[in-house]
Amino acid sequence: MGEMIGKQSIQYEHPPYLLASSSIAGQKEKEGPLGKLFDEIIEDPMAGEDNWEKGESEFMKRAIELAIQKSGLKKENIRYLFAGDLLGQLIATSFGVKDFEIPVFGIYGACSSAGEGISLASMAVAGGFADHAVAASSSHFGSAEKQFRFPLEYGNQRPLSSTWTVTGSGAFIISKRKSEVQISGITTGKIMDYGIKDSMNMGAAMAPAAAQVIYQHLQDFNRKPEDYDRIITGDLGTVGQKILIDLLKENDYDISEQHMDCGIEIYSAEDQDTNAGGSGCACSAVTLSAFILPKIKCGEWKRVLFVPTGALLSTVSFNEGQSVPGIAHGVLLERSI
Amino acid sequence: MGEMIGKQSIQYEHPPYLLASSSIAGQKEKEGPLGKLFDEIIEDPMAGEDNWEKGESEFMKRAIELAIQKSGLKKENIRYLFAGDLLGQLIATSFGVKDFEIPVFGIYGACSSAGEGISLASMAVAGGFADHAVAASSSHFGSAEKQFRFPLEYGNQRPLSSTWTVTGSGAFIISKRKSEVQISGITTGKIMDYGIKDSMNMGAAMAPAAAQVIYQHLQDFNRKPEDYDRIITGDLGTVGQKILIDLLKENDYDISEQHMDCGIEIYSAEDQDTNAGGSGCACSAVTLSAFILPKIKCGEWKRVLFVPTGALLSTVSFNEGQSVPGIAHGVLLERSI
After folding, report:
1. What is the pTM (predicted TM-score) of this model?
2. Which of A86, A337, B178, B207 is a good FRET partner for B230, with 20 to 30 A between their CA atoms?
3. Cβ–Cβ gap A101/B128 under 8 Å
């Protein structure tokens, strides 16, 4: 059973655990600062298939397989799959998960999907509706640029505020079975629209949503930034990070000491030509699995607020002159031992 | 707290209730057999906006407003919104719900979204994570044909197996507060892929998924078709209905007496040129609100298995030669008084 606290949060009385996780990434991610931490690298962006979308499905399939394997469970033990990606009608997910034959809830929170999936899976387990559930998300540089901006073959220029979509997938087993990391609570985001209309500046579109979730989380749990070892956003990048810190300072919270952004960590921007940083559903997912969870497991960090961020961008709405609203999903992770 | 039963189902120990609901539909739906039952008709398919997508957002916005109003609650009482539509990146939803400022979980289950949203909202309420939550979904003939097949201006021909996307939106308040209709349980679907590659025959793509959910529901609850007043699928249409009934007969269940399909009910196919029937996320949603729930409330039906069905169609995967997999989400509705 959970306990609703404040305006937007749950604090679980019996927190579910992150029993196991996986991170599958591509060649570009291998070359970045976290490259050696990922479980597996698939160097071929099509993963042996004949297009990027099928390739992305293979990344997700492998991530889920590996997470289940690492947990010691069998796929028959997984009650639900909460999964999503950036593509229209979630095709990377549909074709990536269908062979598992596990009941599926398709989710869409743009690049915040890792947070949305873990949130919903944690509710399912804490509510007694599943012993074990999987949350998975994927993204892919090739399929995302084709979907949202320009096919890679165009060779278009990318402004400094643009981010680089991470090719990869992360999967997480949320479970009743005890592990070193518990999901102590969640803070679920609202859609925030500051009227941003630049599809090459997603950080600015997402920062207000991240700021709202972090602000409300601190209010709901009655805590200060210094009560956290890290407050980690998904893919704001360097441009979005500044906006986030400024917005929270205006509301009397200074998170500059605690803040980390997966999009900034995953690439070496100067060497890798990734401009403002990494992005995509996989950005926060693979960073959580490969970099954040090990820090909590080993006791270096005891409490982390993980806030994947999403820009609700679509070419249809964008070409019709609409703005790009943002959303963020907060997950409170704590060392449980 | 819930009780996991069988392989894919939950039977709630303390079932949440459907406290209120709404149905907003368009001109074509007004002219159909259920026309007089809808709460409101918006005759302008753009709902006063300048394109179909914005129009669809207005349908969803109005549906949620009205459902909250009918429930006697205020928007501040709604803890979560579970919402989705058919369009890439759920733009009808994002722009339709953002002004409510309610924490949002975006969902994608194609035309099964009404079932997915009610399922997740029922878990949230039964688990103690929300007192009241909204599940909403929308679809739109103009925006869907543009997204998936041909813009309406092309005037392309439509084969007899094709369906007509319902323009409208339905919203549901799932609540701890007692009403005449309870959500006694859910049976969550797997993705089923029978290799259908005809985007004009969605009924055939979805029927196997519906059959699997209905079969497993009957197994999990240890019941027979005759224990139900109705077993109601979302939008299989006449072609999908035959396949569904045949598939279940092969597994020793004859549901021909109990089966009803929202897509068959919503239009008068011969008069309205809708071929195999209606479809879209709104098809099952507005039919549930306007036609099914009143039958349960008045006691005519005491137990209904509601199974919205979705075809996971995308132009990208379709043009790359992939099949159209299906999914279905079962919700067990019972008269509670």
Report:
1. 0.97
2. B178
3. no
- Contact call for A110 and B126, based on CB within 8 A: no
pLDDT(B307) > 70: yes
Q: Which pLDDT does position A5 carry in this prediction?
A: 95
Of B108, B129, B189, the CB nearest to A123: B129
> Which residues in chain B belong to E strands, given as ranges?
2-5, 9-12, 17-25, 40-41, 80-84, 104-106, 132-139, 164-165, 168-175, 181-188, 230-233, 259-261, 278-279, 303-307, 309-311, 326-335
Secondary structure letter of residue A291 according to DSSP = I
CB–CB contacts below 8 A, A to B: 181
User: Which of B86, B98, B124 lies nearest to residue A123, judging by beta carbons?
Assistant: B124
- Arithmetic mean of pLDDT, A93-118: 97
Q: Taking Cα atoms as reference points, which of A184, A174, A130 lies closest to residue A19?
A: A174
* 3-state secondary structure at position A335: strand
Interface predicted TM-score of the whole assembly (ipTM), two decimals: 0.96
| Tens digits of residue pLDDT in B2-40 | 589 999 999 999 999 999 999 999 999 999 999 999 999
pLDDT of A2: 57
DSSP, collapsed to helix, strand or coil, labels residue B200 as: coil
For tokens 């029993």, name the residue. A19
Indicate yes or no: CB of B8 within 8 angstroms of CB of A110.
no
Question: How many Å lie between the alpha carbon of A51 and the closest alpha carbon of chain B?
Answer: 8
* pLDDT tens digits for range B211-255: 999 999 999 999 999 999 999 999 999 999 999 999 999 999 999
**Exposed e or buried b per residue across A98-127, where buried means at least 16 C-beta atoms within 10 angstroms of its C-beta:** bebebbbbbbbbbbbbbbbbbbbbbbbbbb
φ, ψ of residue B233 to 5 degrees: the values are -90, 170
Mutate to test the interface with B, among A89, A108, A119, A194 (most CBs of B within 10 A): A89
Contact (CB<8Å) B98/A191 = yes
